[in-house]
Design goal:
This protein is an alpha+beta fold and 597 residues long. The strands form six sheets. Strands 1, 2, 3, 4, 5, 6, 7, 8 and 9 form a nine-stranded mixed beta sheet that branches. A hairpin with a 4-residue loop joins strand 23 and strand 24. The chain is elongated. The structure holds adenosine-5'-diphosphate and magnesium ion. Adenosine-5'-diphosphate binds next to helix 2 and helix 4.
């Protein structure tokens, strides 16, 4: 056996295996270098999803002919001062990217510094180094990578379609662009401009929001809450969208540590934790968060791609993120996303329906129409039948002008026993009374649990509820926890429980149905958790049986009480599953609907 040193070329190929996985990794390394070089504009051009070409041109500090030759040597970097790995302020520092890319492609660097009288160019073919020769190029650097993996075609097989690879490059560029609003970025793919962001001149926070809105969409900027928190010298800034603006995946969650884009599990988990109360498990919030932390408290050198991070004090970071997001969401109060009203308007816009012009009659009535006619002719069932006058008196309130100025307005009517219509200064609000009430009860219970405990109200006559034996067992097992939540029950012979006290804030409730639904909920949830942690599910079930149900008629005082309660209750803009509890339509929007504007 002979031991011999690997050639530099082989070492580079091995390193390339770690750093250069696909065209997007090439784009990432090259653009990061341009950012580190102080560029104010960066242009990326790709062909065939980056497989044939990734070219990055910047107007940064450039390199001299000598530096050019050095730059493609392994472990050559200008960025590590005093060999101190902890004080890295630049994106690069390992001195691995250029030699790695050069070893698996045809590579050309052309560069010029501000005070040089010529540019220099250097080509490397699959690691075979050429010589630097003078060339024509303005100040800055142009790096071209052609024919990725041409010498190792097996690796090409792991790449996806050009379209997917292009998308990945765009995503990579977006992440870097979000962290650097002061730099102009452009991506051209197959001769078409795919991304174009102008350099933002205003101060950091404004510039950042403009750039975020360019990348994540105007919707995000319109519905974003400002995040700003600090704990022992570590700061968190950025924006987080209200929960009613949410997605089916986490693609619009962006996290940066010291302005470096990262996809770190701890950080993602913290975001999920902060929103857990407001979103169903399969929905994801939109956030762009920037953590500034002393470089000595982290290790970014976990992986060559530097997208994972090790924190010295993970608890502090998690606490900071969860605390800051929860605080911002609480401040947002009843605010729901503008997309909700836009969606409503979209649905209401006349053009969106299959409009039937007035006077037009189909030759044969459709089934729908026939059904409607039949329904109209059937007498109402007696319980629901209200005299028209009584109905109006009960639900339509006069506008007296004194109760204006409330954000959610003054209640004017209740429709279909389900929706409260309120008039605001510049529009109208439609509240889903059931969803809103469910949220209010949830927040009240959470508050009560944290403070004095939930008030209970004894039943005059204890109520016996008959259930299946498994349900009974579940309820009895949980009876201590349920009592904490305000529901006191115990076993009552075989196949039944007796309920003695209920949460006072639920008002008069149908105990039978509440207990049956709770039992079903418990069976479904399984038993490996504390009920307190599943408060939103349990409260949802309880609130369902609370006093304001869909279908219950409310009087004016009750409706206004509901609106005022929503205004002062944190998170009341969405129900426990992230659905909105109300929709607001501005007069201006309504006027547009009617073509008045
Ligand atoms: P690292 O970024 O980790 O230092 P790289 O292999 O990516 O390693 O780059 C090596 C060196 O080449 C850098 O340290 C820098 O001095 C120089 N360099 C690379 N790209 C550029 C560029 N676009 N403009 C100026 N200098 C560059
Ligand atoms: Mg680099």
């Amino acid at each position: 056996m002979t031991i011999r040193r690997l050639s530099e070329q082989v070492i580079n190929r091995i390193a390339a295996g770690e750093v250069i996985e696909r065209p997007a990794s090439v784009a990432k390394e090259l653009v990061e270098n341009s950012i580190d070089a102080g560029a104010t504009r960066i242009d990326v051009t790709i062909r065939d999803g980056g497989k044939s070409l990734v070219a990055v041109v910047d107007d940064g500090c450039g390199m001299t002919g000598e530096e050019l030759t050095l730059a493609i040597k392994r472990h050559a970097t200008s960025k590590l001062v005093d060999d101190n790995l902890q004080l890295v302020a630049t994106l690069g520092f390992r001195g691995e990217a250029l030699p790695s890319i050069a070893s698996v492609s045809r590579f050309t660097l052309t560069s010029r510094t501000a005070d040089a009288d010529t540019a220099w160019t250097l080509s490397i073919d699959g690691g075979e180094l050429g010589e630097a020769i003078p060339a024509a190029h303005p100040k800055g650097t142009r790096i071209e990578m052609r024919d990725l993996f041409y010498a190792t075609p097996a690796r090409l097989k792991f790449l996806r379609t050009d379209r997917t690879e292009t998308q990945r490059i765009a995503e990579t560029l977006n992440r870097l662009a979000m962290a650097h609003p002061e730099i102009a970025f452009q991506l051209t793919a197959e001769d078409k401009i795919k991304l174009k962001y102008a350099a933002e001149q205003s101060d950091l926070l404004d510039a950042r929001l403009v750039r975020l809105s360019a990348v994540m969409g105007r919707e995000f900027a319109e519905n974003a809450l400002i995040i700003h928190a600090e704990r022992s010298g570590t700061t968190l800034t950025g924006y987080a969208a209200v929960p009613t603006l949410n997605r089916a995946n986490a693609a619009l969650q962006f996290l940066f540590v010291n302005n470096r884009p990262v996809t770190d599990r701890l950080l993602i988990g913290a975001v999920r934790g902060a929103y857990a109360d407001f979103l169903a498990r399969n929905r994801h919030p939109l956030v762009a968060l920037f953590l500034e932390i002393d470089p000595r408290l982290i290790d970014i050198n976990v992986h060559p791609a530097k997208s994972e991070i090790r924190f010295r004090d993970p608890g502090l970071v998690r606490g900071l993120i969860v605390g800051a997001l929860k605080h911002a969401l609480a401040e947002a109060g009843h605010r729901a996303s503008t997309t909700v009203s836009q969606a409503a308007l979209g649905a209401a816009r006349p053009g969106m329906r299959t409009a039937t012009p007035f006077g037009y009659r189909p030759q044969t009535p459709s089934n729908d129409l026939q059904e409607n006619v039949l329904a109209f002719q059937t007498p109402l069932d007696h319980d629901n039948q209200l005299e028209p006058a009584a109905r109006i008196e009960n639900t339509v309130l006069p506008s007296n002008g004194t109760d204006q100025g409330f954000p959610l307005g003054a209640a004017r009517a209740q429709l279909h026993g389900t929706y409260v219509i309120a008039e605001t200064e510049d529009g109208l609000v439609i509240v889903d009374q059931h969803a809103a009430h469910e949220r209010l009860i949830y927040e009240q219970m959470k508050n009560a649990l944290a403070n004095s405990g939930i008030q209970r109200q004894g039943l005059l006559i204890p109520e016996v509820v008959e259930l299946e034996e498994t349900a009974v067992t579940q309820l009895i097992d949980r009876s201590t926890e349920l009592a904490e939540l305000g529901l006191v029950l115990e076993g009552f012979g075989e196949g039944a429980v007796v309920v003695r006290e209920v949460p006072a804030l639920l008002g008069t409730i149908d105990v039978q149905n509440l207990v049956k639904d709770l039992a079903a909920e418990l069976v479904e949830l399984g038993d490996s958790f504390a009920l307190r942690e599943k408060l939103s599910e349990v409260c949802g079930t309880m609130a369902c049986h609370g006093s304001v149900r869909a279908g219950r008629l409310l009087n004016g005082t009750e409706m206004n009480a509901l609106l005022r309660e929503m205004e002062i209750t944190p998170h009341s803009g969405q129900c426990n599953h992230g659905r909105p509890t109300y929709v607001e339509l501005k007069l201006a929007d309504i006027e547009k609907l009617f073509g008045r504007r």
